[in-house]
Amino acid sequence: MESKRQQKFASLLQQELATVFQRDLPHLFPGMPPGISTVRVAPDLGVARIYLSLLLATDSDAMLREIRDNTKEIRLALAKRIRQQVRVVPELTFFLDDSATYAAHMDQVLSGLHIPPAPKDEDEQSPKDEPKRPKLFADEDEQ
């Protein structure tokens, strides 16, 4: 469970990193800059885990590699933006957020399942008939 301090700091990092990606370092991202889905911050605010959404990227692994190679430049641009608000700029570690891809995969799997309709109940039993005992095993004979 993150504290309020961690949540506020994570929100600040998410906003400022989005601005850095769009305005300060657009040359690193040909086409569309990556979306930042989640930022998690360590309790000491020294390390930030940034989860990137690269849905529109043609090669997400190559883009993630490019971002990791330029982490120092990204951190420096971030430091210029938040230096008046924080004491220490956290170490940035970038990860690929594949939750949207996973959700699409699960939707495809669930739509491909064949689920038979539920059998209708036999409500038409007469009161004289004794209720049927449910079968517990497939090979059980009716008595």
TrEMBL record:
The gene is rbfA. This is Ribosome-binding factor A. The lineage of its organism: Bacteria, Pseudomonadati, Bacteroidota, Cytophagia, Cytophagales. The keyword Transport does not apply. Belongs to the RbfA family. It comes from Hymenobacter cavernae. Its main location: cytoplasm. PANTHER family: RIBOSOME-BINDING FACTOR A, CHLOROPLASTIC-RELATED (PTHR33515:SF1). Residues 125-143 have a biased composition (Basic and acidic residues). It is found in: Cytoplasm. One of several proteins that assist in the late maturation steps of the functional core of the 30S ribosomal subunit. Associates with free 30S ribosomal subunits (but not with 30S subunits that are part of 70S ribosomes or polysomes). Required for efficient processing of 16S rRNA. May interact with the 5'-terminal helix region of 16S rRNA. Monomer. Binds 30S ribosomal subunits, but not 50S ribosomal subunits or 70S ribosomes. Gene3D superfamilies: 3.30.300.20. Coiled coil: none annotated. Keywords: Cytoplasm, Ribosome biogenesis. Residues 113-143 are annotated as: Disordered. It comes from the Bacteria. The keyword Iron does not apply.
